[in-house]
Design a protein that fits this description.
The chain is about 35% helix and about 20% strand. By secondary structure, it is of the alpha/beta class. Strand 1, helix 1 and strand 2 form a beta-alpha-beta unit. It catalyses: 2 a quinone + NADH + H(+) = 2 a 1,4-benzosemiquinone + NAD(+); N,N-dimethyl-1,4-phenylenediamine + anthranilate + 2 NAD(+) = 2-(4-dimethylaminophenyl)diazenylbenzoate + 2 NADH + 2 H(+).
Length: about 210
């Protein structure tokens, strides 16, 4: 294992609870892989440019992959192709994923480049790898206390599956607006869940 890509979609940046837990996972991995390279893509601190008409037109015409219109897309896809593990730390906004993460998906989910189409649907062109998605939310959308729908998990699963990424594991940090005690409890539960994975069996409770 040589490379981990961390996508942080939180507007809180490095202070995001999901992002902090993701960095703990990287530390855990480095116990066994001390030379592990971490590539961080902070979508809040370094926002991606919005998609324009030129990009939309290039998708529907014969446009070389090295065309300037695909420059940003190629950089992001390259980061994804090189990683051995993909970590995504994201909040849930209005029942689904934040706009920053949706834009990243729009850049990497590209016809003829990361997926192909045929009569039976779409086929991902990327090599499968482990993907860990850490989802932070103020309220509850899983379990007995769930009071709202979750459109993030099925949408993100479908988008990543379309790329060819099938090995997905979601971990939820819920109830983050209910005070420090609630935050500590949900982070502890998430650590416990993740420590059951052989990759993170040395993850310790802080």
């Amino acid at each position: 294992m040589n490379n981990v890509l961390l996508i942080n979609a939180s507007p809180f940046g490095q202070d995001s609870h999901a992002n902090q837990l993701a960095l703990e996972l990287v530390t855990s991995l480095r116990y066994r892989h001390p030379k592990l390279e971490l590539v961080e893509r902070d979508l809040g601190a370094d926002p991606l440019p919005p998609l324009g008409m030129d990009y939309a037109q290039a998708l529907t015409t014969v446009t070389p992959f090295d065309s300037p219109v695909f420059e940003c897309s190629e950089v992001l896809i390259g980061e994804l192709e090189r990683c051995d593990i993909l970590l995504i730390a994201t909040p849930m906004h209005n029942f689904t994923l934040p706009a920053a993460l949706k834009l990243w998906i729009d850049y990497v989910l590209r016809i003829h480049r990361t997926f192909s189409t045929h009569s039976e649907g779409k086929t991902g062109l990327l090599k499968d790898r482990a993907v860990y998605v850490l989802v932070g939310s103020g309220g509850f959308h899983q379990g007995e206390r769930a009071s709202q729908p979750d459109f993030l998990t099925p949408y993100l699963s479908q988008a990543l599956n379309t790329l060819g990424l099938l090995n997905l594991k979601f971990t939820y940090l819920q109830g983050l607006v209910f005070g420090e005690e609630a935050v500590q409890a949900t982070v502890k539960d998430a650590r416990t869940q993740l420590s059951l994975d052989p990759l993170f069996d040395n993850l310790v409770d802080a």
